[in-house]
Amino acid sequence: MIKFINVNKKYTNGYEALRHITLHINKGEMVFLTGHSGAGKTTLLKLIMALENTTSGQIIISGKQLDKLNRWQKPHLRRSIGVIFQDPQLLHERTIYENVALPLLVSGFNHKEIRRSVRVSLDMVGLLDKENRYPLSLSAGEQQRISIARAIVNRPPLILADEPTGNLDPELATEIMQVFAKLNSGGTTVLIASHDLALIESMHCRMLRLKQGQLIRTL
Amino acid sequence: MHTKTKTLKPKYKIKNYLECHLRAMISSLGKLLRTPLISFMTIAAIGIALALPTNFYILLRNMQNLSLQWNNNSSQISLYLRMNTAPSRVQELIQRLKINPQINNVRYISAQQGLQEFSKILGNDKITTILSKNPLPELIIINPIPELRTPQKINTMINTMKSLPEVEIVQLDLQWLQRLDDIIVLAKKITTVLAFLLGIGVLSIVGNTIRLAIQNERKEIEVLNLLGATNAFIRRPFLYTGIWYGLFGGLIAWLSEIISLIWLRNPIKNLAYSYNSSFYIEGLSFNDGLYLLLFSIVIGLIGSWIVADRYYSAVCKPYLSHKI
Known about the structure:
The complex is a heterodimer of chains A (219) and B (324). With 219 residues, chain A is α/β, with parallel strands linked by helices. Chain A is built from 7 helices and 10 strands. Chain A has a domain at 91-150. In chain A, the strands form 2 sheets. Chain A has a 6-stranded mixed beta sheet with strand order 6-7-8-3-9-10, with helices on both faces. In chain A, strands 2-1-4-5 form a 4-stranded antiparallel beta sheet, with helices on one face. Chain B has 10 helices and 4 strands. Chain B has helices at 13-34, 36-74, 87-99, 111-122, 127-130, 151-162, 174-216, 218-226, 231-274, 286-323; strands at 77-81, 103-109, 139-144, 167-171. In chain B, helix 2 packs across helix 9 (231-274). Chain B has 2 domains: 20-70 and 178-323, no CATH class; 77-171, 2-Layer Sandwich (Alpha-Beta Plaits). Chain B is elongated and about 110 Å long. The chains are: A alpha/beta (219), B alpha+beta (324). Chain A binds chain B through residues 42, 45-46, 49, 51-52, 71-72, 75-81, 83, 85, 89, 91, 102-111, 113, 117, 124, 150, 152, 154-157, 162, 182-183, 185-188, and chain B through 1-13, 15-17, 19-20, 23, 219-220, 223-231, 233, 320-321, 324.
C-alpha cells in the first residue's frame, strides 16, 4: 500500500526533515508513527499525500509512483486517502452534513449518491442525529468524529491521521482509536501519527519511530 | 460494523458534472446575496463603468443617424439668381438645368413665392405691404444625382454653377456637414478608447473583488485541496462569481441607459421640434442590450479567471505548507 524507498526530504530553507527513509506498509495494516515534535511525522504524511515532493528517493502509493504524477493526478490520489488532523479542519459556516459531503462534492457525485453515503458515514461515527448542526455547536470529540466521517465518506482504501487525539482527553482519545480500529477491521489501511505512547501501546499495532528525520525502530 | 473497502466512484459522469456546475453557480449567487450591500456596490461600480461607453455609443449612433438624414435631405444646392434677371432667362435656365444629367430635380421658387413663405414664417401678412419692393432674389434649388454626393464632385458642380451668368450666389451647407462627419469620426475613436479603458476598469474591479473573496475563503480552499479537489473545482465558484458580477453590472448599465433616455426624451423632442425636425433619439435595441450583457459577462469571466488562476495557489500554498 505504502512504500518508501530511501526517501530524503530537505526543505528549501535547508532543514532536513527526513533522511533515508525506507518503509513498507501492507494493505489492511494499522500502523502508528511516533516520535517527538519535529521528528518528521507530519512531513512523512504530507509526502504520502503529494502535498510535498521528495528531494530524493521514491514513494509508491497503491502502485502509483508519486513523482510521476502530474498536476491532475495528484487530486485523484488525495481522493483515495482519508485524512484526519489534530484540528478537525471543519468548515464552520457549513452544516455537519455539508462538511461530511465535501469529499463527494469534490469527486463529482450527484446529490442522491451523496445523501446515501453521508448518512452511512455519519451513522458509523454515531452522529447521524447531528447532521443539520454546525461544527461549533459540537464538542471537541464530536468534531473529531465528524472529521473521521468526512475522511471515510468515500470509503478510501487508506486513512492517514496526524495526532487525531492530540486535543482530546484520554477517554475520548480511546473512543476515537476504537473508531480507527473498527475501520481497519473492515480492511482499510490506517496510518496514525501520534506521540501518545500509552495509547499506542494499548492498541497492539506495528509502530514506526522517527527521530530527527530517521526511522530508528520498526516493531 | 462492516466497512466496504471499495472506494466509491461517481456513476453518471456528465449529469454529475452539470450538477457540479449548477451547484457552483447557485452557491456563488448565494454568497453574493449574503452580503447584499457590498455586492451591490461592486455591481454598481461595474454598471456605471459600462454605462459610460454605452451612452457614448448611443449618442454617437444618433449623431450618425442625424447626419445621414441631413445628408440625404440637404444635398441640395441653392442658386440665388442676380436681381432683375429677366423671367425668360430664368425659364431658359430652368430648362437647361432640367436636361442636365447630373441633376435629379429642379425646383423654382420665385421671388414672390419666397416673400410669401417668409411672411408666413414670420406670421405677419403686412410685411408685403411694408416693403415697397421685394428684396428677395429668384431661387432655384437643384438636387444633384446621388453619385455626385462626394465633396470633390459636388465642389466641381458648385463651381460650374457659379460660372453661370444668371447666378449670383451658390449655397451648399456641405461644410458644416463635413465638420459633423469629422466630429463623428473623432467621437467614434473616443468611444473606442473609453470602452477599452473602462473595460479594463471593470476587469480590475472584478479581479480585485475575486481576490478578496479568495482571501476570505482561504480555509475552505485549503480543506478542499486536502480532500482532493482539482484546481478547476476550486476555481469554478469564483468564475461564476465573476459571471454574476458581469451579468448584474451589465443589467445595471442597460437599465441606467433606459432611464436616462426616458429622462432625456422629452427635452430632445422639444429641441428637435423647435428646429422643425422630427428627430427621435433611438436607444439600445434588444439585441444591442444582449450584446452589452454578453460583453460584460465575458469581461467578468476573464477578470475572475485571471485572478483565480494564479492567486489562489499563491495565497494557499504557503499557508498549507506550515499548517497541516
